[in-house]
Structures are given as C-alpha cells and as structure tokens.
Amino acid sequence: MKDKNALAPIIIKRKKVIAADGHHGGAWKVAYADFVTAMMAFFLLMWLLNATTEKQRKGLADYFSPVIPVNRISGGGEGSFWGDSVFAEDVLAQNGTGATMLHSAESAQARGDAGEVGAQRAEENEKKAVQDLMRVMAARSGESMAQLENMPHVITRVSDTGMVIDIFELPEGRLFDPVTGKITRRLEDTLRLIVSAADMVTNQISVEAHVPARPLVVASNPVWDVSTQRAQMVQTKLDQIGFAPDRLLRITGYADRRPADPGTPMSLRNSRVVVTILRDDV
C-alpha cells in the first residue's frame, strides 16, 4: 500500500493553438504589392503607346522579336560567308534573305507595298508625269495658257492627279447668274480657253463644283443640289463648246464640304469650279 504522504506525479499537458494572423499578418501585403506592380506596368504601357510614334513602336517590337536573316548565297564576295553582305540595303531583299524598310519583300510587293524606295520612286514618277503634261500644254497652247494664268479669277496648280485649274467667283465677276443660276459670259470665256488648251493633249478631264456654306438656320440646305446642277451645267457648256464627251471622266458636286477658305466657309471665294486635266495613268 502506497504511502498517502507521497507526492503525486506532476503531469504537464501541452496544447498547441494555431491562430490566423488576421489583419496583423503580412500575406495581404504581398498580394497588394503584386497588384500595384501590375497596375504600374499597365499605365507605363499606356503611356508608351501614346507617347511614341509608329516607327518607335515598331522598333520596340523588333527589339523583343529580332529577326536575323541568314545569307544563303555564296559567291566568293567580300561579304560574310564570302558572299553578299546580309545587311546591305541594295542586295538584301533581292537575294531573298529578308526585307527592310527601304526594300520590301516579294510578298509585300505583291500586295502593292514597294517599300520606301518604291514609294519615293512612284511619287517622283507622278510629279514628272504632271510636269511633262504642263510642258506639253505650255508648248502647244502657249497663248491660251498665258491668258488663263493672267486672269485674276483663275489659279493653276499641280496635284498628284494632274494640272488643276481653279476658277473662283469674285464679287465683281460672277461665274453663275445670282438670279437665274445660269453660266455667265465670264465662266464661258474661261471654259473656252481651257478647252483650247486641253485640245492640245489627249488627256481626260474632271469637273468639280463647289459652293459656299449656307446659314444653319435654313430649313432645307440646297448646297448639294446647287453644286450638282452647276457641275452639270459646266458639262453641258463643254459639250456646246466642242469638247469631246468621251474625254470627260467625271463631274462632281462637292457642296460646301471642301472650301477653298476653311476659315470663312460662307465666303464667296468658296464658290468655284475646278477643272483638272488628268494624268494618263489616272
């Protein structure tokens, strides 16, 4: 029998309590930092898209996806691999090893993209064609062209489509009668000179009619009808003068959509007739 006075054994019970950190923990800070970083990257991307040009964006894209052409031609030349240099602008696209901004690939050329060199060459050809047209007309119809250029209401200029002759309406010289709307003698005489000059070549022509803007308070704006009627009257007058009908490519009434003086859309200067002697390839 045990002694009652003996000490009882001491039992220690360990209890492990697992409690969440709650709002005093740090896990949410990591998620928040990731979110802020992603937002900063997003706004940086938006800023780059807005602050850079198309060429700069293309350069950035090419930096992350570089394409290095490999020369497949060997001919004992001075370039790499004893052939043409893979970085030469004048041989890169022609050799089929790649394309540059100056020389486009064959697939791009098939879609009409000839590269910067091709576009520049096409623009130069267009300018040369228009200049040749003006030289021919000046040589064959010098008197008519000189009279046109000396008229105060006529301006001749060069565009990418051909030689443009602007006939403006002035307060002291109307092109159309304000009451009847018919062509005045001033416009008829101008059209006769244009026909005389245009007969020296075989190019087609186009006719445009423009009118000034009307006040917005009008119930029915007649600018489209008026410009179309004027273009048709010019066509009829050209037929009466003797201009070949098959050489008139198009007539257009632009209403008040293309003013000569955009700052004052209701100005009388915006009332004009435009005759364009077109290039052969237009």
Automatic annotation (TrEMBL):
The keyword NAD does not apply. The chain crosses the membrane at residues 30-49. One of its GO terms (cellular component) is membrane. Residues 15-65 form the Motility protein B-like N-terminal domain. SUPFAM superfamilies: OmpA-like. Keywords: Membrane, Transmembrane, Transmembrane helix. It is found in: Membrane. The keyword Nucleotidyltransferase does not apply. This is Chemotaxis protein MotB. It comes from Meridianimarinicoccus aquatilis.
